[in-house]
Amino acid sequence: MQTQGRLLSGVRVLDLTRVLAGPYCGMLLADMGADVIKVENPSGGDDSRSMGPFLGKGDDRQSAYYINFNRSKTGCTLNLKKPEAKEIFKKMVRKSDIVIENYRPGTMEKFGLGYDTLKEINPGIIYGCVSGFGHTGPYSRRAGYDIIGQAMGGLMSTTGWPGGEPTRTGTPMGDVLGGLNLTIGVLAALHRKQVTGLGEKVDVALVDSVVSAMTNITMIYLAEGRIPQRIGNRYESTYPYDSFSAKDGSVIIGAGNDKLYALLCDVMKKPEMKTDARFTSIEDRVAHHCELKKIIDSWTANYEIDKIVSLLNAAGVPSSPVNTLDRVVAEPQIAEYRNMFPAIEQTGIGAMKVTNNPQRLTETVSGPSKAAPLLGEDNLPVYKELLGYSESEITKLKNNGVI
């Protein structure tokens, strides 16, 4: 059940998570070689198994959502409401390095499987949990989802256009940030365990993760007492650093300092703008961003996206298209050279592309190593090879609703 030749080979993770934040953490660990055992309720499993988009038909119909976040993992079922299942899980903990879960705080304690219990069984266990508000504070028992994290953490208040509604980012960024922070935390705890032999509880909140990511925006308020507002695609601290309209869509120009601004003026064949008093310094350009945007838009409107990007990057000015997803998956830099959409052979589906993790390593491999498990697909190897149960005992467990 282990992936050889990868950074985390030999590390065993019990993954009790579901939907996105927790499974994303488990996916990253699995792609880096950890033996991640996805533990699901036998009655339906991870909620995301029923979330679209779907591939296949009939009995082979599967969620692409689930597959993407659970590739590279081993899969077993265990009904933690059953007393026998709790004892089985404890046996698994004795043989593992990390447990990750994203239940509402208090749920694992109700099962009798909270951190205080598990560390008595295995003092070196690393217990990683991600929830809406974390395991402390008056809101800890509240349900928390991505949109709650983005709203409570301040991200939505600064996302969108002036005068418009607060806007959730197009991807579930609260969940992704929570999953990333859980990964960072458990890996740091794993290092400590290797030094001291002791485990750790890593408690991550979606709200905290968003607040942490808001760092420089929050500093505007902490330093100036000014509440940052929705400002579209421009940047608070420099300009032009924004999206502009081309013939066939939108393009980004990031002329974030005086040198880059001067190069932009040269490309636009408007050298007089370098000495225009409204635009002389970064502070001037931020103050007069509306006038500057109109001038740049009048130039970009004459060209298609790819032409603008080519002209500006050739001159050393950062620029990119605002890509729709069809362009993203066809972009050679992303899809070919960085291999961000590798194919896996999914049971019942065949070859399908998933979204890769972003780590590229020089000495080892990081990326999808196997298909996502069908529900309970690896019950036999997990319970027979890891815990020593006989096939007849495993059959009995299944018949009794334990697995």
Automatic annotation (TrEMBL):
Signal peptide: none annotated. One of its GO terms (molecular function) is CoA-transferase activity. Keywords: Transferase. It comes from the Bacteria. Pfam families: CoA_transf_3. SUPFAM superfamilies: CoA-transferase family III (CaiB/BaiF). This is CoA transferase. It comes from Caproicibacter fermentans. The lineage of its organism: Bacteria, Bacillati, Bacillota, Clostridia, Eubacteriales.
